[in-house]
Amino acid sequence: MTPAARVQTAIECLDLVTRGEPTERVLLRWARDARHAGSKDRAAVRDLVFDVVRRWWSSAALGGGETGRARMLGYLRGIGEDPATLFTGQGYGPATLGEAEIAAGAAPDPLAACDCPPDFAEDLRASLGAEFDPVMELLRSRAPVFLRVNLLKATRDDAQSALATEGIETVPHPLSPTALLVTARPRAVAGSRAFAQGLIELQDAASQALVDALPLAGTRRVLDYCAGGGGKTLAMAGRHRALYHAHDISAARLQPLLARAERAGASVTLRGADELAAEPPYDLVLADAPCSGSGAWRRSPEGKIRLSRADFDALLVQQRAILHAAADKVIAGGVLAYATCSLMRAENDAQVELFLADWPAFRLETVRNWTPLDGGDGFFATILRKGAS
Ligand SMILES: C[S@@+](CC[C@H](N)C(=O)[O-])C[C@H]1O[C@@H](n2cnc3c(N)ncnc32)[C@H](O)[C@@H]1O
């Protein structure tokens, strides 16, 4: 595909995204049907579509409309590329620009310029304070690719050397002693020998820093209450030997965890709701709750354009319920760690305040926040210690 044909394909995908179809589903369907497209084309179209989603509002303003074509036009203007070089009307590229399109488009207002979802601007401003502008600016660009070195199988130096033999260049990242930032061939990671042998996992550096902050030393029984695919379960197991139980309301989400654990050389047991109810309490329960995902909007930008006020309110209710259920599984003297990848106070400190008012047996031990300004995604983590008796 020519660069112009990739742009036209991205425009058609963006039209479907605008109509409400999930971006990932649109791209998967296109990739399945596009027999003429090679892997580089697929990657390029994917990158273009997600780049525009990250700059949803500024692209619409600069392009003078909300169609895929207008947004692509605005996106190209926004990154300083001349759209006329791609909108040539040749081959499978987009039709040449009409006079109205050339004249259309205006500088975005300050909120659109930072591509902040209007419905959450107030929350984000209040939560981030002086960091609002620089954080929103970072969320307009792609996330770096980070790896977590699996200390059960390799040191960070070993992992770096193994990756380098496959042309994957990395540098250590200061956010965590296990974090590597990929500086060359990030797309080769998932197919690499180092990955197949369990030396590394793909995991954001702040997510690793969050696990570093958990008081795992001395714990014997650990429950990951919202384990999902088990990213944090495996990060904990890579650092500290203990009995790890993984639970999630969705069995489908947990499903890849056992194969991942085997590759990592870690021992993790899945626990459904009934099994969990029969388990004695744990020394440490991690509740990595579902959230707005606002801290990870550059990695998963879909949430930025889809999150509604009603979704958000439902998430707050879910987070409270999860905190209560997870607290029930903490042994006297043990720890409840509540975490989100949200930048918003309502999901973070405010939830903890509500929890502490309901559960006087717990006291706040530490609170940590990471934003994309630290290099990785935005995360919140708090350690709540249950009284000894
Ligand atoms: C932020 S994700 C977890 C990510 C995971 N810890 C990781 O590091 O890869 C939140 C998870 O919470 C799960 N979840 C939602 N409601 C839940 C509930 N009531 N009980 C347990 N898990 C729940 C979701 O299915 C989702 O997998």
UniProtKB/TrEMBL annotation:
The keyword DNA damage does not apply. Coiled coil: none annotated. GO terms for biological process: RNA methylation. Gene3D superfamilies: Sun protein, domain 3, Vaccinia Virus protein VP39. The active site is at residue 341. One of its GO terms (molecular function) is RNA binding. PROSITE patterns: SAM_MT_RSMB_NOP. S-adenosyl-L-methionine binds at residues 248, 288. Keywords: Methyltransferase, RNA-binding, S-adenosyl-L-methionine, Transferase. Residues 135-389 form the SAM-dependent MTase RsmB/NOP-type domain. Belongs to the class I-like SAM-binding methyltransferase superfamily. RsmB/NOP family. This is RsmB/NOP family class I SAM-dependent RNA methyltransferase. The lineage of its organism: Bacteria, Pseudomonadati, Pseudomonadota, Alphaproteobacteria, Rhodobacterales.
